[in-house]
């Protein structure tokens, strides 16, 4: 069975808050690939997982294959899934057809579309993204253990006085910007009723966007509802469909917080 390494507050927690790992979680479900989740923390990532994988710069998501091979980076994993499970629906075409039947040009276009969204809404870089900054106080509350907190709040990780700066940001302004980020999604769904972002069926673009939603939902359900669910019926319906997909996998995790 494939192992999916997932950031969580503790080894027994199912509060999976990494937006990038959610992309892979949904991709594995999309391809009907069996997997087990292995919760880890930031120190595990830099310690045990880096040693075992032989990759000092390993990030999450990371999957470990039964033969001990590690693959990390959500987009690389998506491409690996696309190539290795050709009988399952393509992650990049949005038409629900198997990867083996997809035209290369169609797949290439879908990949470029997904990569564009990945670098925008899917990113957590403060230079242009609001999500990490906005939900930082909630994430901070999930980091437990003295050694873990020392690393999480350190200047070496966040820059000089980075921890204090993040906590001092204007939450109201960040919330306003987050809602603006979501508005194009609402407009797109209004222009394409009863469809997904990837096409007539969900795909990697949907899982990138849903990963961002799930990150928010895992950290602050009330604020998430204000930013995401209350911006328009179309987006709320899309969230419901993705949450209930694959036997309600995501919804089950949300409900068990």
Q: Keywords for this structure?
A:
Thioredoxin-like_sf, GST N-terminal domain-containing protein, 14 helices, four-stranded mixed beta sheet, Glutathione_S-Trfase_N, alpha+beta, Glutaredoxin, 257 residues
Task: Please provide a written account of the structure.
There is one protein chain. The chain is 56% helix and 7% strand. It has 14 helices and 4 strands. A 4-stranded mixed β-sheet has the order 2-1-3-4. It starts with a strand and ends with a helix. The relative contact order is 0.13.
Task: Draw up the topology in text.
Elements: E1 2-7, H1 19-30, E2 35-40, H2 42-46, H3 48-53, E3 62-64, E4 70-72, H4 74-84, H5 104-119, H6 131-134, H7 136-142, H8 146-152, H9 155-158, H10 162-167, H11 171-191, H12 204-219, H13 221-227, H14 233-255
Parallel strand pairs: 1-2
Antiparallel strand pairs: 1-3, 3-4
Helix pairs in contact: 1-4, 1-12, 5-12, 11-14, 12-13, 12-14
Pfam family, one: GST_N_2
Protein name: GST N-terminal domain-containing protein
Domain GST N-terminal: 17-83
